[in-house]
């Protein structure tokens, strides 16, 4: 257990559940020390409570001062309103972890008491099975001790990488959104294999194993992805034909644009939140 800290998830969507599932499965934090709340969907809170043994607390009933770590997992557009509603009761010792895409640590620091410790986190949904690629970027007031604690927390759901704030948008484009690109690829390959007569269940196993094997080759071999690709591409062979089709139909450009567009959307969300804060006339961070 990590110091018997108590944590609360504000927001109960897919990402919150993926993280809760991974943390509970790894036995890093006792389920009785995990709380989750949202604005209105009490049936969702009960579902999470029944499934994971945690505490589902309806909005307004959570005693925020009983937790050590506040994890922001609401929709990014709701961040300003949510933080404004709790900023007066946040305590100096509480660590704020944000999994909100596009929401910078400086924006959060503007909305919470002055000097509050904030860490921006970008996991992906593979955290549900302990295989997330998670990035951490600390705010200006966060101690090395709390950054280390957060790193240990998220190591229970996969690999953790400490990066700079300005690198979070591109990380979001490749890792935060990355699993969806692979699912999209598998979806199309599965469709064609089923058309050719293989059963969907068999195809799914084949494709999952193929993707897993390729991932392990990248992890365990010294060669770059480009060299690994070249090693299995015989002149005029089947792989060469497939890769030619990818080039002819702009497969590489599609991947490039997917990464760029996801990264740009992360930046856009940040700009939109900044504008919404200005329109709400929220004062600067209060002193603690």
Automatic annotation (TrEMBL):
Name of the top EC class for this enzyme: oxidoreductase
Domain named Pyrroline-5-carboxylate reductase dimerisation: residues: 165-268
Cellular component GO terms, alphabetical: cytoplasm
The protein's annotated pathway: Amino-acid biosynthesis; L-proline biosynthesis; L-proline from L-glutamate 5-semialdehyde: step 1/1
Keyword tags: Amino-acid biosynthesis, Cytoplasm, NADP, Oxidoreductase, Proline biosynthesis
InterPro entries according to UniProt: 6-PGluconate_DH-like_C_sf (IPR008927), NAD(P)-bd_dom_sf (IPR036291), P5C_Rdtase_cat_N (IPR028939), P5CR_dimer (IPR029036), Pyrroline-COOH_reductase (IPR000304)
Catalytic activity, as annotated: L-proline + NAD(+) = (S)-1-pyrroline-5-carboxylate + NADH + 2 H(+); L-proline + NADP(+) = (S)-1-pyrroline-5-carboxylate + NADPH + 2 H(+)
Domain of life: Bacteria
E.C. designation(s): 1.5.1.2
Recorded family membership: Belongs to the pyrroline-5-carboxylate reductase family.
Protein role: Catalyzes the reduction of 1-pyrroline-5-carboxylate (PCA) to L-proline.
Protein name (database record): Pyrroline-5-carboxylate reductase
Gene name per UniProt: proC
């Amino acid at each position: 257990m990590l110091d018997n800290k108590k944590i609360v998830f504000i927001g109960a969507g897919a990402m919150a559940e993926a993280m809760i599932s991974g943390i509970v499965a790894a036995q890093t934090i006792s389920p009785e020390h995990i709380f989750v709340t949202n604005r209105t969907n009490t049936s969702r809170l009960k579902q999470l409570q029944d499934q994971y043994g945690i505490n589902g607390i309806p909005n307004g009933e959570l005693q925020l001062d009983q937790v050590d770590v506040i994890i922001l997992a609401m929709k990014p557009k709701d961040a300003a309103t949510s933080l404004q509603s709790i900023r007066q009761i946040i305590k100096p010792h509480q660590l704020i972890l944000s999994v909100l895409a596009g929401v910078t640590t400086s924006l959060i620091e503007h909305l919470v008491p002055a000097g509050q410790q904030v860490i921006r986190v970008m996991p992906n949904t593979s955290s549900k099975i302990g295989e997330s690629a998670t990035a951490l970027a600390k705010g200006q007031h966060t101690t090395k001790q709390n950054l280390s604690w957060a790193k240990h927390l998220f190591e229970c759901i996969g690999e953790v990488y400490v990066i700079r704030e300005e690198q979070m948008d591109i990380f979001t484009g490749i890792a935060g959104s990355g699993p969806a690109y692979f699912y999209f690829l598998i979806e199309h390959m599965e469709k064609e294999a089923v058309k050719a007569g293989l059963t969907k269940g068999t195809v799914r196993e084949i494709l999952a194993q193929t993707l897993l094997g390729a991932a392990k080759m990248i992890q365990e071999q010294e060669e770059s992805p480009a060299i690994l690709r070249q090693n299995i591409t015989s002149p005029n062979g089947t792989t060469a034909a497939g890769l030619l089709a990818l080039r002819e139909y702009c497969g590489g450009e599609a991947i490039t644009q997917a990464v760029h567009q996801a990264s740009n959307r992360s930046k856009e969300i940040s700009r939109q939140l900044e504008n919404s804060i200005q329109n709400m006339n929220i004062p600067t961070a209060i002193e603690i």
